[in-house]
Design a protein that fits this description.
About 65% of the residues lie in helices and about 0% in strands. The protein has about 525 residues and is an all-alpha fold. The radius of gyration is 23 Å and the shape is globular.
Length: about 525
């Protein structure tokens, strides 16, 4: 039975996506809202998948798409002992064991459908239409199994004081976030699995299911090592829970057993061989690759424009420098989270979770900006918890998404994904009216000016890149300008989200209350 529409109409909003759900509510059609949102999200992903991908038609190594397909190949045909050592010059496996198991599972399905897709060695560089459809389908299936349910459940359960429209807007907006869609379904990766486990981690934290929280977090970083960007925040949260409880020691032991058991199960096939465990460690944490790769919008790459750090310092010195800088950037946020949880009462549970979300953004953004060996795609890591704050921080999250998307443009341009990039950028700006101001949360005039200025800078750089050839002496000038600009913006976002975390106990957000 359709629900009755609210007796008091929701206030009209300038945000188009809200108008759509207000219309459904006025027509008593709430029951179709979630299926339509999910199906539309599915359609967008499939349409993006019709375009190019990383390394398409560029032998001999191709790109990330071939890496993911190759890992299915080696995990299906080789014994576990060779997964992390087989032909390392051709896309050797360099993600943690849960990724390897996922590759094995997808490879088993591929073998059942068409074994030629992952024939050992013989299938290298395979780009048949059917194999591409299969690869795209695996990315969508895994996202809709792990990430999408987590997002839906999180917003449905954590925002009971919000209107039905506000909850649906949050779900729809997060599912249409352009950066993850373009990287996973355009460029081609499986980041949604790692990020899905992160959302489950926050969901279980809010439900006070701390053992499940620990297990889901272990699954996140055992799928991709970038999940460790969240580790300081998760550790501070769980440690504080142990201190604030009467039987905290028991909880501490249970958490330790859960973590050791989860990691132990995933490392089980290699647990008896120290050499193989060391090989996994070397592959997962490739210090030898240097401070950063390609042009990533973090501090070290931006500083390198003026100061050639890799020429002045050896690798070990750079590791120590980046470790110290990263720690200094995230420690204040984690200390604040720890003492907030220590003082937490039953009535403060929702506030504590809100502080936890801010801390996840701050720690992961600190790692992105200052840690060793960062890729441009790693901006998805701080973006994921930021999106969980999309109701409290509408203008900030909208803006963060736009800048993050701009930072990915050089990568997407190389992949030939300019059209999907512009479609998703315009779609996000239209749906969220960024940088226009949502009616229910007035944005300070100075922020509006800065947002519009930011948008104009990005448009100017795009225009110059399209119509003004770079000088022969500076062929990468537009990429470098992208890096410097986005790095400065990300540093500003880090400062802002830290400020919001430290002040959120003093100023409570204006929630969109449900009207009876």
């Amino acid at each position: 039975m359709p629900r009755k529409a609210s007796r008091t109409a929701s206030r009209p909003s300038v945000v188009p996506v809200q108008r759509w759900f207000q219309f459904l509510e006025s027509q008593s059609a709430q029951d179709i809202a979630l299926p339509v949102s999910v199906l539309f999200a599915l359609l967008v992903r499939w349409c993006i998948g019709l375009h190019g991908y990383s390394g398409q038609g560029t032998p001999p190594l191709y790109g990330d798409y071939e890496a993911q397909r190759h890992w299915m190949e080696i995990t299906t045909h080789l014994p576990v002992s060779q997964w992390y050592s087989y032909d390392l010059q051709y896309w050797g496996l360099d993600y943690p064991p849960l990724t390897a198991f996922q590759s094995w599972l997808c490879g088993a399905v591929a073998t059942y459908i068409d074994p030629s897709w992952i024939a050992l060695d013989a299938s290298r560089g395979l780009e048949s239409h059917t194999s591409k459809q299969f690869m795209r389908a695996t990315a969508i299936a895994l996202e809709f199994i792990i990430y999408v349910p987590a997002i839906v459940l999180f917003f449905r359960s954590q925002h009971t004081k919000m209107s039905w429209v506000a909850r649906q807007v949050s779900i729809f907006s997060v599912l249409l976030q352009p950066c993850l869609i373009l990287i996973d379904h355009g460029h081609f990766q499986y980041n949604s699995v790692m990020l899905g486990f992160l959302v489950w981690t926050v969901y279980f934290a809010a439900q006070e299911s701390y053992i499940l929280m620990a297990v889901s977090f272990c699954c996140s970083f055992m799928f991709k090592q970038m999940g460790l960007y969240y580790a300081p925040a998760v550790f501070a949260f769980l440690l504080a829970q142990c201190f604030r409880r009467k039987h905290g020691t028991v909880l501490f032991v249970k958490l330790g057993v859960a973590v050791v058991a989860t990691v132990g199960v995933m490392l089980g096939p290699w647990i008896t061989s120290v050499d193989q465990l060391q090989q996994i460690l070397v592959r997962v944490f490739p210090v030898a690759r240097g401070l950063y790769e390609d042009k990533v919008a973090n501090v070290w790459c931006a500083v390198n424009v003026a100061v050639k750090l890799r020429s002045l310092f050896d690798a070990q010195s750079l590791v120590r420098l980046s470790t110290c800088a990263t720690a200094l950037a995230f420690i204040p946020s984690c200390i604040h989270l720890f003492f907030t949880i220590r003082r937490q009462t039953r009535t403060m549970q929702s506030t504590a979770i809100r502080v936890f979300k801010y801390c996840l953004v701050n720690t992961s953004l600190a790692f992105f900006l200052f840690s060793f060996q960062v890729h441009e795609k790693s901006i998805l890591v701080p973006l994921a918890p930021a999106l969980l704050l999309i109701d409290e921080e509408e203008w900030a999250v909208n803006w963060f998404v736009q800048v993050a998307l701009f930072s990915l443009y050089p990568l997407l341009y190389v992949d030939g994904l300019q059209i999907p990039y512009w479609v998703m950028a315009v779609l996000w700006a239209f749906l969220r009216s960024c940088p226009a101001c949502p009616a229910h949360t007035p944005t300070p005039k100075c922020v509006m000016v800065l947002q519009w200025t930011s948008m104009l800078v990005m448009l100017a750089l795009h225009t110059a890149h399209a119509f003004v050839p770079p000088p022969s002496s500076l062929p990468d000038i537009y990429v470098v300008l992208n890096v410097v600009y986005c790095c400065a913006m990300f540093v500003a976002f880090l400062a802002y989200f830290n400020y919001r975390q430290f002040t959120c106990l003093q100023v409570q957000p204006t929630l969109k209350q449900k009207k009876d």
